[in-house]
Each structure stands twice: as C-alpha cells, then as structure tokens.
User: Fold this.
Amino acid sequence: MKRLVINTLNKKAKIHKEIYGHFSEHLGRCIYEGLYVGEKSDIPNTNGMRNDVVKALKDINIPVLRWPGGCFADEYHWKDGIGPKENRKKMINTHWGGVTEDNSFGTHEFMELVDQLGCEAYINMNVGSGSVQEMSEWVEYLTFNGLSPMAALREKNGRKDPWNVKFIGVGNENWGCGGMMNPEHYANEYRRYATFCRNYTDKKLFKILCGPNVDDYNWTEGIMKTIAPILPVSGTDLVAGVSLHYYTHPGGWDNKGKALTFTKEEYYETISRTYYMEELIRRHSDIINRYDPDHTLGLIVDEWGTWYQVEEGTNPGFLYQQNTIRDAMVAGINLDIFNRHADRVRMANIAQMINVLQAVILTDGEKMIKTPTYHVFDLYKDHMDADLLESYLENEELTIEAHNVNPKTAPGGVSPEAWKFPKLSHSVSMSSDGSITVTIVNASDEDAESVKIIPVEYEIKDVAGRIVTGEVDAHNDFDDPDKVAVKEFTAFKTEGNTVIADLPKLSVVCLKIR
Ligand code: AHR
Assistant:
C-alpha cells in the first residue's frame, strides 16, 4: 500500500481551466467532417456544426480551442475565409494531404463554433508567410468595435458586433514549418508583429510567443534573451505566454509504432516518453525563470499527445489514429503533470480534438465515438480553475529492458538501457466549494495498487469515485462505441479520516472527497 498525503492548508497555484484546452487544425477530418459539415448536411447540425460533437465537447466543459493550426496557420490567409462562400478561394492544403481547402470554414464559422461551445478562442496568426498588416487587420476585424475599415468589412459580412478573442498566437513552430527561423530572428519578428497586434478593448490580448520544439533549450534561451527587454515587467503587454510542443511517439519520429497493436516494450516506451514532459517543463521553465523571475509569463503546451502511424488505408497526410487505454494513461499522466506545474503551465491543448492524432472524438459519417482520452478529460474536469494542493505520493519505478533505440530520437538524445516510469501518477486540487479532487493513474500493466489517502486538516464527510480502465489495447469503435467508458468506482473504504482505494492495473481514477 502506498500513502498519499495531502496538505489542505497549502494551495500552491490555480489550475487554469485552459490546461484542459484543445487544438483544431485544417488537417485531415478535424475541421471538415469532424466539426463542420455545412448547413445543408443530413448530419444534424446547427449553422453547419455537428450537434452530436458540440454536445459531447460541452459535456467535458471544453475551455479553449486553438485554430487554424499548426503548420496550416503559417500559410493561412484569413481574408480567403470570409464573405460569401461561393466566392471563397479554393487552395491546396500543402501540409496536410494536398487536398483542396475551399475555405468554407473561416473566421465567422470558427467564432460561431466557439460560441456554441461556450469556450475561449485561441487564434494562431500567420508569421511565416503573412505580413504585419495582415495580422493587424485580422485582430481589428475580430475585436474592434467602432468605425474602421475592418469593422465595416465584418459588418458587410453579416456580423456587426466584434467577438471576444482572448488568446493570440504569434506564429507557430517558426523553428520549422513556420519559416525555419533562428530564435533571435523569430523573436525580433515577434516584437514587430506583436506591437501591431492592438488591444481594442479593456481586456488585453494574451499574446503567445512561439516556444521550443521538445528539448531545444537553445531556442528557449535565444527567444527569451531577445524578448526580455519587452517583458511585462517593463510595463508593456507584448508577451504573455511561451509555447512548447512535445508529442509522445514510441519508436521515435521515423519509426512510429501503431495505435492498436503494440508490444509490452512499446507500452513501457510510450509511458516513459510521456513522463519526459515533466523534465521539459522543468528545464524550459528554468531558462524562462532567469528572464522572468516573477513568473509573469505562462507556459503554453499548445500541442501534446500521442503520434502513431496512421490507420491502414487512410490518407497518410490526415494523421488519423485510433485511441486505447494506453492513450488514457498518457492523457492522465500529462494532465497530472500540467496540474502539478500549474504555477507555470497556463494552458495546454491536446492535439487534436477530432479525427487527428490523440483525438477525444472520432467520426465516421454520421457516427461519432468518444475515445478513452475523452473519458479521462471527463474524469479530470473538476480540476479546472481549482487550487492545486501540496501533496506527496509514495511510489515505485517500473522498468523493462530497451532494445535498439535510435539515440537521435531518444528522450534527452541518449539511448536508454531500460524504459522506466513511476507506477503511479497523481494530482490533487481543491475547488471553490471546498471539495477535493484526487486523480490517480495506475500505469502498471500487471499489478493493482492500494493507496491510502490522508488529507491533513480536512474532515472527510463523503467520497465518490469514477474510473476509466480496461485492457491495454481496449478501445471504442463504431461497432462497439462504449467498450471503454467512465464507470462508478466503488473499490474504496473510509478508515478514520483516510480513504483507502484499490486501483486496478491500467486505471485512471478520480475521487471526489467532501
Ligand atoms: O498537430 C500536427 C502538427 O504537428 C501541427 O500542425 C504542427 O504544429 C506540429 O508539427
């Protein structure tokens, strides 16, 4: 039995709800088919947005949605996606499958979706192939309330009032698909672009600087050094967040494994690589801290999740993959890591919301299924906007021998002799009503574990539990949509002022303590 001690007197940081954010790109069947089917579709929709999908997303209280990319963002020209649909430019989506992009989903459609979901908008602007003027005019079109060329154009296109847009990404992966820049050059470009990204309302835009790919600490150092003179400390509001992208891909970038069939070693590798997120957050934060000791900047992990081979018979450029209990483990572990680093992690966006990579929803025509990852988001939703509590969990390490790992794609650039990870992951928060949310992942594929939860200075009156569990490759498909689902968890008892929970192997559990 392991002990989990919770210090209810030490609230360490607010877990911003945006940590539970999502990402939607013009990629494969994420936007088209997944979210947007058009007003004339037979699939039930409201103004073109699928009703079933919107309902499912609202049920997990999706807090923020990033759009239009990804790599697509740095070749997106927003004026192609406004005005009468029949006049909108048809173009090639060069990044993703070379398919025709007809721009029928543009600014008005995205803001309609955000409105239906009741979430914040996070719009990623084009630095790679755009211009300062194009970006500045998009911000004016979106947010300016008054007499101006862009406000007039918006009204001509059927929308008088401005929208509420909070988060603005200034470029995406500018070290790669967003322009192959070096960090100093990009950060200087950022200073110019962000200057003309005006605040037209009292609510200041939350502007996000393109941060590193995985463990590129040189990038973080370069951008921070260049951006330091304009940090909020100096009284400006040009930068509020720095992004970080890290995907879990067992086998490495060039030799990714499959989503549904994998070995025990691949499972251990997947979980071990997932834990690398913690080191990345810590080490990039250490660099950021040197330039921003007051923690005014948020770390925005706006792309995370598993990335496997595409499902057989699907377009390789569409990045469509299935999702199993293994992905549920990855989701729970990542969300726990973000929660535990809530003092720095201000937002995170799983890649991607529907039909792409570690999706929470998959669709096939009019059918829709919720993946195991969706159910983990459901389990964790009470952490949103709660206070992270100090906690300590006894743990043990699980390990398996590693074979033939390419050092180039190994975490930290060194081939490990073994894949290792802690058996249990957890995070604990207190909501505004005083209730405690404890989430625990037992990632062992062999053994159950009992955990004795000891909340200090808290009187337990009531406990309720929910669980997601199954065989490691258990998943939902269109013939069996509810094989993996959230179930009531009753394998616990209260003993004195403690709770003893028996966690099955391969389980994600949420205990609500009141
Ligand atoms: O999510 C898929 C792609 O991964 C995004 O477009 C890009 O930003 C990243 O490389």
